[in-house]
Write a structure and sequence with these properties.
The protein has 330 residues and is mainly α. The chain has 2 domains: 34-260, Orthogonal Bundle (Fic-like fold), CATH 1.10.3290; 265-329, Orthogonal Bundle (Arc Repressor Mutant, subunit A), CATH 1.10.10. It has helices at residues 12-30, 38-55, 62-69, 78-92, 102-112, 146-160, 166-180, 187-202, 211-217, 219-232, 236-261, 266-274, 283-290, 295-308, and strands at residues 129-132, 135-139, 280-281, 312-314, 327-329. Helix 2 (38-55) crosses helix 3, helix 2 (38-55) crosses helix 4 (78-92) and helix 2 (38-55) packs across helix 9.
């Protein structure tokens, strides 16, 4: 094993975040909260894919991504649509991936970049760097070093699984992978996916934790943390950042689960079951999905109680009776 892995120090903040995250994961997994809710798992998977692609400038909306995955016709850039299809297939393979296998890494990259990249499923053959405007702020290791660096990194992961806490090990891998930049295209998507794969090996619930959506919200800070680590030759800042992102997204998932478990009427549960997250619905579309004929029944038994519990919201709260009103599941 080479001395490539840069130093890191377990800070008090890391220790506290690992403890908080472990407690929240335990809360979610103790009663198989996500396992028993296929709609939450599917929605979170779609959010993961949408956000990871959006970070890389894919312009498709969440509803577009959902439609592509559900096999519906979507009008848009064909490369972006293909990226969604590829990502869905790649994420479905999380349980079978060996995160220490270079052949698995190349195989999944081949799936993720199918029909969208010239060099798919192979390490890059050219030089790569990161530009800020016209200035090159980072130059990746030369291509002839990639094989050895990736072999060393995978060996390091293999040697340290069970030694370094998976929450920290996965963050270090993520940073190192981005630094090596082993592929000509798709490095960010692969780094985020592999981070999830490593976390999945620790707790399977991470297969359906939309970590990518949290990173997308703090995209600038994500790149800033990487840049600082490049400068300091130390991954501490990035480890703390990723732990913070995981901690925050788990708060959201706990809230999702609690809302799903809350003492709501069977009417409201039925309505929530036919609604997708973050998709705007008209009252007529909800009625059709539920097989209702009376708008008064919809308002009284379904919409109003769900609004009071904060389970759905209006897109036009200041105009409750607008014909353009839509309802969104939260």
């Amino acid at each position: 094993m080479s001395g490539y892995i840069p130093p890191y120090t377990i800070s008090n903040k890391m220790f506290e975040l690992v403890s908080e995250i472990s407690e929240k994961v335990g809360r979610i997994t103790s009663h198989k909260e996500l396992e028993s809710k296929p709609h939450l798992r599917r929605n979170n998977r779609i959010r993961s894919i949408n956000s990871s692609l959006k970070i890389e400038a894919n312009s498709l909306s969440l509803s577009d991504v959902r439609d592509v995955i559900n096999g519906h016709l979507v009008l848009g850039d064909q490369k972006e649509i293909q990226e969604v299809k590829n990502a869905y297939v790649a994420y479905e393979k999380i349980p079978e991936i060996d995160p220490t296998s270079i052949s698995d890494l190349k195989r999944i990259h081949g799936i993720l970049t199918y029909r969208t990249a010239r060099e798919s499923g192979v390490f890059r053959k050219g030089d790569e760097g990161v530009l800020s405007g016209s200035e090159c702020i980072f130059v990746a290791p030369p291509p002839h070093m990639v094989n050895e660096l990736m072999r060393d990194l995978m060996q390091w992961v293999k040697e340290n699984e069970g030694v370094i806490h998976p929450l920290i090990l996965s963050a270090i891998f993520h940073y190192e992978f981005v630094f090596i930049h082993p592929f000509a295209d798709g490095n960010g998507r692969m780094a985020r996916l592999w981070h999830t794969v490593l976390l999945y090996r620790w707790r399977s619930v991470f297969e359906y934790i939309p970590l990518e959506s949290q990173i997308e919200r703090f995209q600038n800070e994500y790149y800033d943390a990487i840049a600082v680590c490049h400068t300091k030759d130390n991954s501490d800042i990035f480890i703390e950042f990723m732990l913070d992102m995981i901690n925050q997204i788990l708060d959201e998932v706990v809230l999702q689960v609690n809302r799903s478990n809350s003492e709501v009427s069977e009417y409201v549960k039925r309505m929530l079951a036919v609604m997708e997250y973050e998709v705007p619905y008209t009252s007529n579309s909800i009625m059709e999905a539920l097989g209702l004929k009376s708008k008064e029944t919809l308002r009284k038994n379904y919409i109003n109680p769900a609004m009071e519990l904060g389970l759905i919201k209006m897109t036009l709260p200041d105009k409750p009776n607008s014909r353009n009103q839509r309802y969104v599941k939260q």
